[in-house]
Amino acid sequence: MKKSIKDLGEIKGKKALIRVDVNVPLDENKNVTDDTRIQAIVPTVKYLTERGAKVILMAHLGRPKGEVKPEFSLEPVAKYMSKVFGQEIVFIPSVEEASTYVEKLTDGQIALLENIRFYKAEEAKDDDMTFANELAKLGDFYVNDAFGAAHRNHTSTAKLAKVLKPAVSGLLMEKEIRCLSQALDNPERPFTAIVGGAKVSSKIGVLENLLDKVDNMIIGGGMAYTFVKANGGKIGTSICEDDQLDVARAIEKKAAEKGVKLVMATDVLVTDDFSGNGTNKFVKINEIPDGFEGVDAGEESRKAFADVIKSSKTILMNGPVGAFENPKFAEGTKAVLAAVVEATRNGATSVIGGGDSVSAAKKFFKAEDFTHVSTGGGASLEFIEGKVLPGVAALDEV
Q1: CA 222 to chain CA mean position, Å
Q2: Distance in angstroms (rounded) separating the CA atoms of residues 207 and 213
Q3: Engineered SS bond to 151: which of 126, 200, 270, 379, CB 3.0-4.6 Å?
Q4: pLDDT tens-digit profile of 262-291?
Q5: Catalytic site residue 165?
Q6: Choosing from 355, 376, 377, 391, which is the catalytic residue?
Q7: Element of type H or E holding 90
């Protein structure tokens, strides 16, 4: 178990150097259009400021790739955060000038450092700790609250934790690890995983790891057509990875050996125009006509998925079951999420595991309708695969 900020003891007057994930979308006028990630770090920052710590936040925005690019500046984010925290966030324009700003901070004050990815050394693959040592001078202890970047072996997410001690998790990071670990390692049964998305290849690790843990596995979305074709079905122009047909068969074989119930769509909504303005109709999933592609789970399949979900005590969702971005193809994903919400209200534990699942969950429901909605796309995917996340591994053990 990793230490958290709750294990720190007296912190009044101390400098907390925190890696956060405020990689938020901005419009053309540099206004924040979705502040979910900012709201997610509020508990950690307030915990520290209310106890008199001086808070220095490090974060990235976009992918400037080690160059100073004004369009990726965090200054507009600092201005927005000032409203969220009810105090002016001190913006630090560069690491080189940071110590001057940090020295002037008063207890309970917050500063945000300019985009850490403006520095090539942030993403460097080598073991050079020069940049980590430079950053370490800014704090008395290190906090990682950026679960969304925890799978990155970068200076601010992992190397820094090796040179600035204590190195602990923030409240968001702690919750992410606890909720995902509990679902994977100590689930109340039956445990159902919903794995969707476009490609089998991007989810092989997830499927393999989950087969050792779950009772039921619902496979939906674009990846389902690879399984259908592997079993000799007709899939029209549906998305399919021909180089993954053997993998699909191997997953089915492993599921049978493990006694895991694989739940696949039996019918599907197909279209001859992905914009949704052509002919849309329901067909059997293994009888998709030429010129048509599958875009959503059919009505029978939605009911079958919902029945399994509602009888589950632990539910982990990673990926939608259709092209939900188009309202005409969203009903399957919406039905699956509605079943997850109902199960949660009836006492099940539900974890929405990052990426498109989170986008869908937020589009149709509220985060509080589920037990936990992960803030990390790639990080939650790798966690579910059973991989070690460098940003978590580097933190102090209790």
Answers
A1: 20
A2: 10
A3: 379
A4: 999 999 999 999 999 999 999 999 999 999
A5: no
A6: 355
A7: strand 90-92
